[in-house]
Amino acid sequence: MNDAHSTGHAEHSIRGYIFVFIALLVGTMFTVWASYIDLGHQWNIVLALVIASVKAFLVAGYFMHLVSERKLIFMVLGSTAFFFAGLIFITLWSMQPHSLIHL
Amino acid sequence: MENVIAFFSKLLGMPVLASKHGIEVDNLIIYVHWLMIALFIGWLAYFVYALFRFRKGKHPRADYDGVKSHASTYVEVAVAVIEGVLLIGFAIPFWYQNAGKFPAESESTVVHVVAQQFAWNVRYPGADGKAGRQDFHLVNAATNPFGLDPNDPDGKDDFATVNDLHVPINKPVIINLTSKDVIHSFKVIAMRITQDAIPGLKIPSHFTPTKIGIYQINCAQLCGNGHASMANGRLVVQTQEDFDKWIAAKSKTGGASQSFE
Amino acid sequence: MEIPYAVQPRRDTGLYNAKLGIWLFLASEVMLFGALFSAYILLRVGAAPGMWPHGWLNVPIGMANTFVLICSSITTVLAWVACKDRNYNKFKFFHALTLVLALTFVGIKSYEYYTKFTHYEITLTNGKFADGHVVAKSKDFDLIKKTGSVTLHGHIVEKREELMDMHSAEARHEKHEELTVPAAEITRMENYGPWHHTYLAIYFTLTALHALHVIGGALVIGYMWVTAGKMWKTDPERFTNRIEVSGLFWHFVDLVWIFLFPVLYLL
Amino acid sequence: MQPTTHATAQPGNSEAAHAHSAHHEPGFLSKYVFSTDHKVIGIQYGITGLAFLFFGFCLMMMMRWQIAYPGKALPVVGHLLEKMLGDVAAKGMISPDLYNSFGAMHGTIMVFLAVVPLVFGAFGNYVVPLQIGAVDMAFPRVNMASYQAYFIGGIIMLVSFFIPGGAAQAGWTSYSPLASIIPTDGQTFWLVGMVFLITSSLLGAVNFIVTIIQLRAPGMTWMRLPFFCWSQFVTAFLLLLAFPPLEAAGVMQLMDKVFHTSFFLPTGLAVGGAYANISGGGSPLLWQHLFWFLGHPEVYVLILPAMGIVAEIIANNTRKPLWGYKSLVYSVLILGFLSFIVWAHHMYMTGMGTHIATFFQTTTMIISIPSVVILTCLFLSLWGGSIRFNTPMLFALAFLPMFGIGGLTGLPLGLNFPDLHLHDTYYVIAHFHYVVAPGTIFALFAGVYFWFPKATGRMMNEFWGRVHFWLSLVFMNAIFQPMFAQGMAGMLRRMSDGGANYSLAKVPDAIGGLSDSIMYCNTTISIAAWCLGLAQLPFIFNFFWSIKNGKKVTSDNPWQATTLDWQTPTPPPHGNFTRPMEVFRGPYEYSVPGHAADFTPQNEPPSK
Ligand code: HEA
Ligand code: HEA
Ligand code: CUA
Ligand SMILES: [Cu+2]
User: Which residue in D47, D236, D51 sits closest to D128, CA to CA?
Assistant: First the structure.
């Protein structure tokens, strides 16, 4: 990734970038549109998060070149994702049994 | 065995014990300390011996390979196994029994305790044994800290005390704990019970007192400059008769809208 | 003294120092925003039933800002490609675009903040709630002395719960009009700042932190745009690396927004 | 006998290096204050950290007076305190407010301003690049920024003592709502200070990881990396991933303080009998989760580098390889990994559900295993050695049983049934002080005595070193051992009167309470603490005196060590090495059979 690409290469990837760009715009419009139709509350949330994840994958994968990145970076990000998941899920899990008082 | 336990609990300086589950707390503390002491003494003996035997004057040229036996692996595995036994055999089932299973409310003394800087407010359901309806929209810090419904007949004989918690002996006590301001922690050492009182949450906890007497309620969570002197709470464990008398007397004078400050 | 692998990648890792560094930094950023997202989830799950707001933000504006950030991402990529192709002018052009887009984002965001701070919820003496943007205040308006009046563009509702869902079809079709409320009828008046509701608290915290990242990124981009000429001549490869690294940061900022937008505006 | 040729000092060597860098001889400011050289930054961290360590200890010595003699005016410094701090120290007494401030700041300063900067910022910075054969850290200017952020954070914390109302009072754990509702600004300063300290640590962490991954000298494979570098590597990851959640929490608490949000404030809070005018809807437990998500990894940040230092010194002074180097490495990796999933063992008494309690008890028990493995490896490394008892080695050896006591007493705390009794008592205080005070601090002392000759070219005095060691060992134990008894008897921590109110003196008819002998321990502990203070004087004098007057080293490698940090000129010049380093073997090749010298440096070419 670091060695200079030939011009032809760059031309090729520019088309890819533009494609990702358009996909992101469409995804944004789609998620807004989807939020106005009623799928049942949970499903609206799930759909919005799925779209956001796809968009995030596009940005990270192509703009940030993660799809062709080195193993080391994956190890770093993998462990981060793991601990992040732990933080969210364990915290949620342990808060659950409390009976909240709503004043 | 009893004697051994008693001896160790003396050795470790465990304070007076006055609750049913407390014996399990103490036993587990003692078992863990056996493990700790055994490990510590074992290692220390090895340590001192190794330092002595392999000091430079005695052993001028070190041995490249060092220990070749696998004894250490066995020790490590043994530690892991013993910890596993303590965990799976004692700690986890104890906790499930205790925190997981609550005694039936009908067979227990149920009290509400609201902590505040720097005192314990206690509310009893009164002689009828029924607590009045609570609605937190009605809470008013000065006149109605529990948010009681003044129109509920069950609540008419409810009463409240400050820093004075009476319970009958040998009957489970359920404490519904919350706090008005900051986090406090309800701790009665002889009962081997600690439970944080957290504003916004109502957390039940329970114990069964087994010795008559007066105990101090400690606050075990830093709650401000009066934390050290939040020491006036009393837990009074009485016979059932004395307790009933006390309830009856209080129910007459008490009332749901009693002020606390 | 030369620090190795500052420009060329190290063979066994395939990375140059700064690239590994920025990814590590981004990992910590994931945990930072991740913790705030967990806070968001917890606050939302823990909210009293019906008291978590929907539709308090202006979706078209948020969407426009999303477009702005996505555009800035593609211009960043194109600027980097231009660097790789050693096309200085093209680089300058795309990088300038990125900068302009970044500033646009901040501008739009400030406008959104402004509309929140001028949006008031007023508890009336009759127990109802007036809610809307302040259009005008009479000169003698004073809540304590109970003189004067305030004019809102908004509506009046019976219960506070009704203010929570502004996203539903009914809420969107509700008529908003100019209302004048005398101070004497007001028991409490509070604008939609972070103190108004935990939703707004997390909204302001997340977006302000995000905006700080945008501003920080813009400063870096601006600095590199201005000083590009020198290093371009002496060490174009190192310069390209820098553009790549700052670009990674910029995409990450975009990526955070991709989650912020649906979570705060739509759900 | 080839090794010694380049292991011994070649005076010309370092001179030459000096001349080499002389063409841009930097001025005083850029050489000592705004330096980007990792060694200078390491020393800056070291001096600042030691000063904070001493300051944190001074706070505690004053608090111990209040614990031992509650309500009596502080001798000697009481008057001064009143002058400087005003009402909170009225009549030279430590008021509860001041006690709480000092307590919170003792914890904060010790953890975030003294020990982390020392073990990570100072030793890590100074030693890691040398040990891996690098010319500097990967990002020297980021390194400088990291120190500066730390310095600013420290200043903010110090300033907070002098603002009206004084420094933060809610404990180093800063639990909300208490932290948010105390009306003074101490907590705000604390939070802002923490944001700087966290930033500093994050910058440092990125720098360390990149340096260790990218700048290892040729031949320095992962399994040839000295254990100290491994421990720093794992530590850096802990800082990198655990600190941001605290930063997020800090920002939220700051919002609560400054913008009156309710992140950690539930609905219906009534403070001082009046309703708090807040929106409510927040969660006090959220703060605890985010704090301890950092808090537990943080305690391993305090201990892992200390273990690294101890391992280096033990290998060097037993003159044999560390036993089980690979187990050590894997254990430290597992330890780092597991430390992220045990945090709620600090929150057992918040009333968590049974399943979640089971989960955290189990992970807590599991995490003790790698510690046992590490300690076992270090112990077994002694067997067959030829042990030299110099000052660094004494401190390193004492670390082992001291950490053992601290670690073992973590076990009952990790099981939540025993924790019912022990939570928030002095047992907890004793537990963690055994790990951090006679544990980590001893390791720090060991490290100072050990690397002092590398940094200054002079040895510290052995005799006074030994005096320092024995006195410290005795008094440390005299301080912390009785605390186990106090805690077991039920004495609670964070008591501005040392538990006097809880001794039940007021209610003679009550059962239980603290016995006179337990209360009397307060006094003996305090006296031991002041004696420990005196016992530091030999160290402080020895330290400063030896910089100018210590015995000159006769070689670049006075301890005859194998790692690369000793194969440089003394003190190492800018750029560290006078010739490129190449590594041929593992880090601890001592007493290799068939070798005349009892050590074989990592960079000595294999003899063919
Ligand atoms: C460096 C710091 C450090 C370290 C390493 C540890 C290590 C451990 N800690 Fe500790 N802990 C703290 C610092 C530390 N802790 C602090 C600061 C607090 C209090 C915070 C506060 O509330 O303010 C705390 C509090 C604390 C609690 C909460 C108590 C409470 O508040 O109620 C718990 C509970 O589980 C716990 C458990 C453990 C465990 C199981 C380990 C395990 O990792 C220990 C494993 C180690 C061993 C098992 C030892 C093995 C050694 C041998 C077997 C050899 C023996 C040697 C000889 C005899 C020579 N700790
Ligand atoms: C790394 C962490 C660390 C360290 C090292 C220490 C060290 C010490 N601590 Fe502390 N302590 C904490 C972290 C630490 N502590 C925390 C987190 C708390 C909880 C706070 C809270 O409740 O919120 C606490 C609480 C705490 C309490 C309980 C207070 C209470 O609950 O009310 C006590 C009581 O005695 C105490 C005592 C001591 C003592 C006597 C030392 C001694 O061991 C100190 C030894 C120090 C030295 C020996 C200094 C040596 C330095 C030099 C000699 C400088 C040389 C300088 C140059 C050469 C330039 N500590
Ligand atoms: Cu209440 Cu401490
Ligand atoms: Cu812990």
Answer: D236
Distance D140 CA to ligand 3 centre (A): 47
Quote the pTM value: 0.94
D57 touches ligand 2 (CB under 6 Å):
yes
The answer to whether residues B86 and B31 touch, using CB atoms and an 8 Å cutoff, is: yes
Other chains touching C, judged by 3 or more CB pairs under 8 Å:
A, D
Within 10 angstroms of residue D15's Cβ, the number of other Cβ atoms is: 12
**How many Å lie between the centroid of ligand 4 and the Cα of residue D300?**
9
| C-alpha to C-alpha distances, A98 to B200, C197, D102, D283, nearest whole angstrom | 10, 22, 34, 11
- Is the predicted pLDDT of residue D311 greater than 50, yes or no? yes
D582 φ, ψ (degrees, to nearest 5) = -135, 140
Q: Is the pLDDT of residue D271 over 90?
A: no
pLDDT over 70 (residue C2): yes
Q: Is the peptide bond before D55 cis (omega within 30 degrees of 0)?
A: no
3-state secondary structure chain C: CCCCCCCCCCCCCCCCHHHHHHHHHHHHHHHHHHHHHHHHHHHHHHCCCCCCCECCCCHHHHHHHHHHHHHHHHHHHHHHHHHHCCCHHHHHHHHHHHHHHHHHHHHHHHHHHHHHHCEEEEEECCCCEEEEEEEEECCCCECCCCECEEEEEEEEECCHHHHCECCCHHHHHCCCEEEEEEHHHEEEEEECCCCCCHHHHHHHHHHHHHHHHHHHHHHHHHHHHHHHHHHHHHCHHHHHHHHHHHHHHHHHHHHHHHHHHHHHHHC
- Chain A residues with CB inside 8 Å of D336's CB? none
pLDDT at A7 over 50: no
Distance between CA D500 and CA D518 in Å, rounded? 11
Q: What's the mean pLDDT in B129-149? A: 65
D50 lines ligand 2 (CB under 6 A): yes
Q: What is the pLDDT of residues D157-204, one digit of tens each?
A: 999 999 998 999 999 999 989 999 898 999 999 999 999 999 999 999
Cα(D372) to centroid(ligand 1), Å:
12
What whole-number distance in Å separates Cα of residue B153 and Cα of residue B158? Answer: 10
pLDDT in tens, D47-61: 999 999 999 999 999
Q: From D468, D464, D367, select the one nearest D410 (Cα to Cα).
A: D367
The answer to whether D200 touches D147, Cβ cutoff 8 Å, is: yes
- Confidence grade of residue D322 (pLDDT, cut at 50, 70, 90): very high
Partners of C200 on chain D (C-beta within 8 Å) are 261
Rg of the Cα atoms in chain B? 25
Task: Please state, rounded to an integer, the average pLDDT across all residues of chain B.
Answer: 84
Residue of C10, C43, C198 to mutate for D, most D C-beta atoms under 10 A: C198
Task: Give C229 or D406, the one with higher predicted confidence.
Answer: D406
- D460-477 pLDDT tens trace: 999 999 999 999 999 999
Q: What pLDDT does residue D12 have? A: 37
Cα-based distances in Å from D526 to B7, D89, D531, D539: 30, 20, 9, 21
- Which ligand approaches the C-alpha of residue D299 most closely? 1
Q: Which of D273, D351, D376 sits opposite B76 (nearest CB)?
A: D376
Pocket test for ligand 1, best of D346, D402, D403 (most atoms within 8 A of CB): D346
CA distance B56 to C49: 73
CA distance D20 to chain B (A): 40
Residues of D in contact with A94 (CB under 8 A): 289, 344, 347, 352-353, 356
ipTM for the predicted complex comes to 0.93
Mean pLDDT over each residue of chain D, to the nearest integer: 91
pLDDT tens for D363-374 read 999 999 999 999
**Which residues of chain C have a CB within 8 Å of the CB of A13?**
81
In eight-state DSSP terms, residue D574 is: T
